[in-house]
Amino acid sequence: MDRFDRIFDLHKLLSASRLPVPRQRIEQELECSRATAKRIIEAMRLYLNAPIKYDRQRNGYYYDPGEGEMFELPGVWFNASELFALLSVQQLLREVQPGLLERQLAPLKERIDQLLKAQHAGGDLDKRIRILRAASRPAGPAFQPIAGALAQGKRLVIDHYNRDRDGTIRREISPLRLVHYRDNWYLDAWCHLRNELRTFSLDAISSTKPTEKPTKNISDKALDDHFSSAYDIFSGSARKTAVLRFAPQRARWVAAEQWHPQQKSSWLEDDRYELSIPYSKTPELISDILKYGADVEVAAPPELRREVARQLQEALGKYK
Q1: What is the pTM of this model?
Q2: Burial (Cβ within 10 Å: 0-12, 13-18, ≥19) of residue 304
Q3: Are 185 and 202 in contact (CB under 8 A)?
Q4: Neighbouring C-beta atoms of residue 116, cutoff 10 Å
Q5: For the residues of 48-79, what is the DSSP string, one character each?
Q6: Which residue among 12, 117, 144, 172 sits deepest, i.e. has the most Cβ atoms within 10 Å of its Cβ?
Q7: Answer CATH for 3-63 from 1.10.1040.10, 3.40.50.150, 1.10.10.10, 3.40.720.10
Q8: Residue 293 Cα distances to 126, 246, 257, angstroms
Q9: Collapsing DSSP states into helix, strand and coil, what is residue 82?
Q10: Could you report the per-residue pLDDT of 79-98, keeping only the tens digit for each?
């Protein structure tokens, strides 16, 4: 029985007992020594604010939360997503510069630290779990004015750097959604220059100018249909389906991955894994395909297969 099982069992024992529970019974129920039982009790008091009191006359422990109240354990038995969320928030709060929100954020920081300490006997759980962020690009000074315009429902004039064309274009946009994707910030917006929905990387926005014009109204459903139907952040509406076949040794890994909410998959007779993904644009999809090297084959459509083959041949040519 580990520490968290013992905390949970002690909580059930104290909650169900009308009279103080003797120490010997706690040791028996928790299958532990006297010293361990004391450590569990102290940990619950310190980290979980458990109102555990000791009755000397009856030689037992009991809950004393207050008249007419019941003590309940906070949600400290995290699953993977909950733990990731808490650690991520903790790291983000540590990166906030001292300033206007420092006093307001202090209680939140302290509460998260207490929850994380309760998950580990030695505390400092964040030092025992690493969250690695790869290839992230700072959002830069554009984040605050964009977030402000988004909240106020106002348009912006931005200078946006297009990396493909190596040039900067000034355009008027209606900010619609901020998106955090693969450790980078993006903005879904209506581009009034092109009269269509576009996604902009915040680090590529060099300047912003507020306007008093109201944001163009786009429904949530229309945004979801446009930005969520196809593969990658710059997707647009899905028009094609990529069929990928992974070699058996790689299939065991890919079968556990979710590339897209509408993906379809099946196992082939030769133990290969076939994955079908809706897509619109190819740059990011091709990049993800190429990282699997010889362990993946593009079965369809023909134009995607040819483009992947061309890039593989071009890469090979650099090593001749």
Answers
A1: 0.65
A2: buried
A3: yes
A4: 22
A5: H---EEEETTTTEEEE---TT------S-S--
A6: 117
A7: 1.10.10.10
A8: 35, 10, 17
A9: helix
A10: 667 677 777 777 777 766 66
